[in-house]
Amino acid sequence: MRRLCLLLPVLFLGGCSLWPLPKPDPAQAWIDLDSDGKAKLEALRADRKDLEDKRYFQVWPGNHDLQVRYQFEVQPTNIGAQVADPLARTCLVTLNYKAFAAGERYRLEAGQTGWRPWARLYDERNQEVARSTASRCGDV
């Protein structure tokens, strides 16, 4: 019983990341999320509607605005600070793409240059098809 009590908080903290991803709907476009592994990237909204599962996007063909939360660390040397530890930064990044196609699989990649975040969308042929247009950082 004691082991079960210790295991339950771990399961709850894992949230939906413990569940396998659903099977993609062939009538929609699927967007995987990709970051450098050191940062955290979450799907937040598609067309200003909150998503239930923060691990991916799935949208109907056509034009869509995608918003992600990107959490990363900034090295103090990138901002001129005189501290030794990296500084945590959280940003909302928005990306628009007008030509999502049914059955296609896309990859949304995020990263940063210094303290500024960026996001790029790649198609199945690994060609860049869109870049982020806006970001907001701070208490988001």
TrEMBL record:
It comes from the Bacteria. This is Lipoprotein.
